[in-house]
């Protein structure tokens, strides 16, 4: 059982997401608070990012948002988080979010969310991030991406062992359970990063 104090949640800033995704974000935030797990996110003031943060805060949880300065200048940040960390650029933002987390959960999202997810998967493949990564596949949202990753293995762009880098959950409860139960990644597997 992993000692989990904080979880980084990647999620959409779109305010037009369907209710099924909003409900999953709300439930996840509440569960993190109940488990006394600090939520780490991108500090966005709208969309699933805000829903998850607000739910966590409303349930008595703590939220650390990490956001680049140019987004703060645009007024895109959540105004009432437990902690706001302002970085100089997007790269530092992502590094900081990973460094602060004991695991990652990806809610549905667009290019930014998928880019964050694929980058942390790559870091784990290289032994740079060893904590659990969980894809919260609400309503089958990530089916196509997961099929693409399996296709990459079939076509020998990745090794079969790399399919163990992430776990897939269909509910927020399952996602939290997987964060606790997934063993730490062995950084020595980085020798298999190249084919």
Brief synopsis:
With 195 residues, the protein is of the alpha/beta class. The protein has helices at 19-34, 47-58, 69-73, 90-100, 111-125, 143-154, 172-181, and strands spanning 6-10, 38-41, 63-68, 83-87, 104-106, 133-136, 167-169.
What does this structure look like?
The protein is α/β, with parallel strands linked by helices and 195 residues long. Helices cover 42% and strands 15% of the residues. The chain is built from seven helices and seven strands. Helix 1 runs parallel beside helix 2. The model has no long low-confidence stretch (mean pLDDT 96).
Structural class: alpha/beta
Q: Give the terminus-to-terminus CA distance.
A: 32 Å
Oligomer category? single chain
Molecular shape: globular
Fold blueprint:
Blueprint: E1 6-10, H1 19-34, E2 38-41, H2 47-58, E3 63-68, H3 69-73, E4 83-87, H4 90-100, E5 104-106, H5 111-125, E6 133-136, H6 143-154, E7 167-169, H7 172-181
Parallel strand pairs: 1-2, 1-5, 2-3, 3-4, 5-6, 6-7
Keywords summarizing the entry:
single chain; 195 residues; 7 helices; alpha/beta; 7-stranded parallel sheet
């Amino acid at each position: 059982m992993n000692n989990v104090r904080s979880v980084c949640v990647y999620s959409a800033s779109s305010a037009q997401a369907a209710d099924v995704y909003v409900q999953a974000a709300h439930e996840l935030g509440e569960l993190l608070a109940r488990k006394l797990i600090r939520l780490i996110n991108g500090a966005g003031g709208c969309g699933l990012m805000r829903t998850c943060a607000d739910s966590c805060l409303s349930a008595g949880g703590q939220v650390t948002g990490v956001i680049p300065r140019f987004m703060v200048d645009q007024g895109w940040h959540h105004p009432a988080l437990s902690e706001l960390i302002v970085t100089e650029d997007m790269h530092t933002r992502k590094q900081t979010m990973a460094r602060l987390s004991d695991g990652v959960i990806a809610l549905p999202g667009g290019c930014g969310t998928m880019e964050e997810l694929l980058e942390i998967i790559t870091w784990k493949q290289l032994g740079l991030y060893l904590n659990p990564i969980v894809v919260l596949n609400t309503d089958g949202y990530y089916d196509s991406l997961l099929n693409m990753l399996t296709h990459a293995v079939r076509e020998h762009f990745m090794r079969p062992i790399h399919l163990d880098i992430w776990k897939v959950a269909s509910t927020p409860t399952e996602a939290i359970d997987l964060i606790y139960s997934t063993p730490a990644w062995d950084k020595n597997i980085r020798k298999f990063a190249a084919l």
